[in-house]
Amino acid sequence: MDPLSVIALAVFSCVGARVFLKEPTMSNMIKGSSARLKPAFDLEEFLATRTEAVNQALDRFLPPAKTKPATIHRAMRYSLFAGGKRMRPALCLAAAAACGGNETDALPLACAVECIHTYSLIHDDLPAMDNDDFRRGKPTNHKVFGEGIAVLAGDALLTQAFEVAVQCQDWPRYPRQRIVLELAQAAGSLQLIAGQVADLEAEGQKISTRQLRYIHERKTSALLCGSVRLGGMSANCTPAQLRALTEFGYHVGLAFQVIDDILDVTQTSEKLGKTAGKDTQAQKATYPSLVGLEKSRRIATRLTDRAFAALDAFKGRAVALEALAEFLLKRDR
Ligand code: GRG
Asked: Which of 80, 228, 287, 293 has the fewest CB within 10 Å, making it most exposed?
């Protein structure tokens, strides 16, 4: 399928998801974690079509693998197309839809956040950081290309993110420079990098749940929340919608990391596509290590409920965001 058809299909299926949403009868309602009754939404189809649209757009945005110097372009593409779940792009596109926007306008931003996320994983896996051999079910970037190229592939993806993001739609309420600032702040030394610094410095230390939340807010929630906010901005959302998206993204982002910590101790490496049990091995403070598994699960559910509550502002139009939050809470990889 050509790229335009993929986007058209993605846009259609989002509109279609709303158009064909069945009347909320007891038979088509599912019970969510928050005990709210929700109308059925085909999340599997949403994720499949959006992942395809994002992959095709990323392929267009990035220099071809053979472009000189080919090593760096192969290394960037190796990690980018290694099979990530594409949760940040999905959240970005779903937020745009919730605000009545056109998903095609959100696509450069969905791709930009995935480039930043992939860069952070490549660098996180380096021997100087978490020192991991597997990611997304494959050997890590530095295992294949060597440390020098892996550092550069991360740098190049970070830079590429901004080149892609500036191709977004410019709105009176959200000029392009405002949108790019949002991306820079989420990835910068007060957010994503701050979280990673605090995470490194906390290794082997006894830290409080308050300090752990500081790390999670920055290392994980900032980019997830930024993805949701950027989707809203691409749809020229109202200030009230942006506040609701921020509340949603913040809580989903925190729940995401609590679940990640739980999966690290409950799942196998094969299932996760990365080395399981790394947190315990590196003596990292996590929710399970601080409060136990059961309480961690309750915390993740409570955070997701807070995220659901923020969606009330969209009066039933945020079906994809709601389904994603539930999926992230119940995920097993
Ligand atoms: C600047 C040298 C240098 C390093 C920066 C910022 C940074 C390194 C690392 C970010 C920290 C990090 C990896 C946070 C974890 C967030 C997280 C839970 C990632 C896993 O996300 P998934 O499950 O992964 O969405 P996939 O592979 O599915 O995309």
From this structure: 293
